[in-house]
């Protein structure tokens, strides 16, 4: 045992410097484009910073006050929360189902299905958004034309991206189509790591499919659920490209605007630099806090086989 420990320490010392050098470029990029901007924003958010100011003046919590009293704040926050629920629960649930089904398919057919469901991830979110925008077009979109063929009257056709009550559900549909394939592959990988002996024993004991799912599959997929939930949470809170492309900037009337998109519009179109920085800081802190809470809860449920 002592000899193994010495060998391990020798290799650790040998690869410490090369490993550090390999990781250093990525760490520097993360610091330059993620860590440093975050702390700069936190500093600027307490000033009257704008693109023309030379020395920003300290103004305290004024930018946060302007953000919270904005009449669009509650609507945008609600939109983001709805999208977060879609990501965390709907995408997760559908991905689990697809991942389990993939694990039960034959190799050839399973590979074909995996290729098909993963295909959307090869496309840009902007391309996906504009494509679905055409599909959901009220007058000439294929979806409404299909509804006409099925007997829906012209006056009853849904205005998918024009009706405020339908905008977020429409975005949720596109999110499900775009994201499910990627996360189902993670669940499929988790399924492949479950020892088959557990299923054999459960079959001998007379367990039904629901009992297998509850007591074997889901506990052993807990690690995958943790990974996917955190990734989906961060993706939903920072969702920008898809809503922007689908709704042409978050309209009409901010009903398709997420917090991330609101930050962009406030900065570049509203030219309210301080308020946009306050929104971005709130967004970053919210993503970090929610992810940490999820990790604390979900890590306790993980099973190591």
Give the helices and strands, then pairings.
Layout: H1 2-44, H2 62-68, H3 73-103, H4 107-118, H5 125-135, H6 142-149, H7 164-192, H8 196-204, H9 209-220, H10 222-237, H11 241-247, H12 259-268, H13 273-298
Please provide a written account of the structure.
The chain is mainly α and 305 residues long. It has one domain: MetI-like (MetI-like fold), CATH 1.10.3720.10. The protein has 13 helices and no strands. It has helices at 2-44, 62-68, 73-103, 107-118, 125-135, 142-149, 164-192, 196-204, 209-220, 222-237, 241-247, 259-268, 273-298. The radius of gyration is 24 Å and the shape is flat. The mean pLDDT is 88.
Question: What are the segments in which pLDDT stays under 50 over at least 5 consecutive residues?
Answer: none
- What is the count of structural domains? 1
What is the rounded distance between the termini? 25 Å
Structural class given helices, strands, pairing? mainly alpha
Radius of gyration: 24 Å
User: CATH homologous superfamily name?
Assistant: MetI-like
CATH topology: MetI-like fold
Arithmetic mean of pLDDT: 88
Beta-strand segment tally: 0
Just name the CATH architecture: Orthogonal Bundle
Order of helices and strands: HHHHHHHHHHHHH
Q: What's the tally of helices? A: 13
Name its key features.
single chain, 305 residues, mainly alpha, MetI-like fold
Concise structural overview:
This protein has helices at residues 2-44, 62-68, 73-103, 107-118, 125-135, 142-149, 164-192, 196-204, 209-220, 222-237, 241-247, 259-268, 273-298. It has 13 helices and no strands.
